[in-house]
User: What shape does this take?
Amino acid sequence: MSIDAGCAAPRQTLSVPEARRIILDAVAPVGGHEWVALRACLGRPLARDVIAPCNVPAHDNSAMDGYAVRAEDAGAGETRLTVVGSAFAGRGFSGMVGKGQAVRIMTGGVMPLGADSVVIQESAHIDENSIVFSGPVRAGQHVRRAGEDLTEGGVAIPRGKRMGPAELGLAASLGLAEVAVARRLRVAFFSTGDELASVGRPLAPGEVYDSNRYTLHGALSRLGCELIDMGVVPDRPEALEAAFLTAADSADVVLTTGGVSVGEADFIRALMQRLGEVGFWKIDIKPGRPMAFGRVGKAWMFGLPGNPVAVMVTFYQFVLDALLKLSGVDPLPERPLMPAVCVAPVRKLSGRCEFLRGRLFAEDGVWKVKPASAQGSGVLRSLSEANCFMVIDAHRGDVAAGETVPVQLFEGLI
Ligand code: AMP
Ligand code: MG
Assistant: This one.
């Protein structure tokens, strides 16, 4: 298995794209589906293609308010046609449009038999029971053809597409009350650390509130995962072993935070190597260099660092797309980046790809980014105040004010 790359050479440093590739190559969709009512599908990936059971639109209809006519009746000069009826949306014209005739039609009105084109009302004037307009009519003008949006029997929404607002509407436009979505991924997660305290009670000296489980709760809920929150597990081998086994038994994916840094890694590493096949990776990423990835039983396991910002950075760069792929979505090979002018200097050592927190804004028609003042891997506030990551390549050093840097927007990511 390709995760061996991490196991076989634990001292070797992986680049961010290499680590992403190994993870995405290793995981495959878990399969399974359920039929879910349309409104409840939001955010969930389709497990099967949605096939159009009918044409959309179902009938040829008018794209504009105007008059349904026969194109051949119009000449190069002035044309006069007798208005013989009307066709409104939902209330059609039952007769036939004959030579020299027109039917008043509103947007969405079904094209009457015999008519093939629409003359918009702004181009025609009414003269008693007739309309008069100038110039030729192009056959089919301002007509929306039956099946133009979706053809009966064709794929309306492909498998693997996440149901967004447009897809809910699209499925509804086909009259579908429910669609087959991938079964929810079961994700078990716990925090490790003797210093961690749960919210809602005072801190004892040396304790820190466990925030990582809340960050992960939010991120995983947005993905529509079924959450198995296992709380805080102390840094004791028996407790960790029991937690790993329970988690791996009940979940598709196990996420842990903390305990993978240099001091503690050997301790958990020994445990993980006994329980499963897990690589401990050094990734040239900041924050978040140490990370574990592999399998315990049938579950995929991600051992994220403990620092709160590092948790979010590694989650978004490595875990998110793996979860999407596991639930049948084809993630983009690379995250979209946009260039922005960095307005303040940033100190950076070469060697690690840094995901700095920043605020993207527009000024005088130029996209600019202001780096957060505190970039420590424990400073969650920097993430809360930011709206993008500035992605600074591993090979380069300091960023000067005025330099253009690539940024990754949280919108659509977080
Ligand atoms: P570790 O990777 O376990 O050495 O943790 C690195 C740093 O992150 C330490 O300062 C921990 O106290 C802190 N940390 C670890 N887990 C959490 C957590 N769940 N919530 C908040 N801080 C944490
Ligand atoms: Mg720890």
Remarks:
- Residues 191, 193, 195-196, 208, 210-212, 257-259, 261, 264, 305-308 surround adenosine monophosphate (ligand 1) (CB under 6 Å).
- Residues 76 and 233 are 83 Å apart (CA to CA).
- Confidence is low (pLDDT under 50) at residues 5-10.
- The chain is about 20% helix and 30% strand.
